[in-house]
Structure formats: structure tokens, C-alpha cells
From TrEMBL:
Transcription among keywords: yes
Alphabetical UniProt keywords: DNA-directed RNA polymerase, Nucleotidyltransferase, Transcription, Transferase
Domain of life: Bacteria
Source organism of this protein record: Gracilibacillus pellucidus
Protein name (record): DNA-directed RNA polymerase subunit omega
Enzyme Commission number, as recorded: 2.7.7.6
Length: 71
């Protein structure tokens, strides 16, 4: 089973796995509650997948200063 987007691609956008998981989980809950996402042509069938696609497309980012604090 191949998961998309791959962790290698995601870590080029957010280099901390902890930050990536926390951010995408929070965003997935928002997507689930509002049914609104910012992915133009989603491939994912789940809200977590949509959140990760937003990260990959740089529509969901993290403040670089807070990212350094989490490392």
C-alpha cells in the first residue's frame, strides 16, 4: 500500500513529524466540521489526507518560529 502524499515530500514543507501530525490532525477536524478544504483537485478520500494535501500544496503552513520550538 502506497500512501500519498509521501512523508518525504511532506517533510520538505514541514520538517518535524510531530508538527506535521499535530497540524494535520487539527486541520482534519476543521475540514470534518466545516466541509471546506483548500485543495483544488483532491486525491484523498479522508479529511487527514485532505489536510496533508493542503500541506503539500503549501495552503496549510506552520510559523517557522513555532516549528523550531517543537523540535
Amino acid at each position: 500500500m502506497i500512501l500519498e502524499p509521501s512523508i518525504d515530500k511532506l517533510q520538505t514543507k514541514i520538517n518535524s513529524k510531530y508538527t506535521l501530525v499535530t497540524l494535520s490532525a487539527k486541520r482534519a477536524r476543521q475540514i470534518q466540521n466545516t466541509k471546506i478544504h483548500h485543495v483544488e483537485s483532491p486525491k484523498a478520500a479522508t479529511t487527514v489526507g485532505l489536510a496533508l494535501e493542503e500541506v503539500l500544496q503549501e495552503k496549510l503552513t506552520v510559523d517557522p518560529i513555532s516549528q523550531q520550538e517543537n523540535e
